[in-house]
Specification:
about 240 residues, alpha/beta, 2 domains, about 30% helix, about 25% strand, globular
Amino acid sequence: MKFNAYIDGFNLYKSALEKRPELKWLDLAKYSQSTQPESTLDQVFYFTARIKERFKGDDAPRRQHAYLRALEATGVTIVLGRFTKDCDWLRLNSKEHRESIEPSLLDSDGSIQSAFDHSSAMAEPDSIRANIWKFGEKGSDVNLASYLLMNVLRDGLKEALVVSGDSDLATPIRIAKSAGAIVRVISPSKGSPRVELRGASSFFEELNPNKFLKFQLDDHVQPRKGKLISRPVIWRK
């Protein structure tokens, strides 16, 4: 039986890859096939958004571009949502400056914490607020749900792999299963959202990122057209 894989890129990145650069050059096709060796992988869909610079000289967009090109060279279909970069006033979750600012500020005489205490007193009963950049991604969950249901309901897909810990996907997964599809969910996320996904899916498991070490792309990937794509240096072991 053939199956498709639906990968929630930002959920996977934030939950399992962000602090593991040696795993980021992940071969999604080989990994997906390894999860269901008894079936044949047909298509891999990777749902993400093109990120924007967080600060001047930020190299992350270039690294992401290289990775997306490498994935496309292996046959993965990239489905793009929208990346947002907005300013907003948000409340700090601590009155301690060392827990609210990074890198931490030197406060040898306690004057910085004293200023925080003063601001906290002025804000009560509310909390201190800061004007910060908010980075986010929009549309990937809707896109994933739409592709999954389209393939199941229109194309007759009978087996699917979903890699995501987003509980918002529980309903479309449940619909796909009720339509006769076997939907396996591998969740990179920890915590309560797993409960809803576990109940909605045909099979459920938690992702073990260490397995990704066996499923890395070659350091250099040659697409059919264009220049050789190289693994970013900081993503190498």
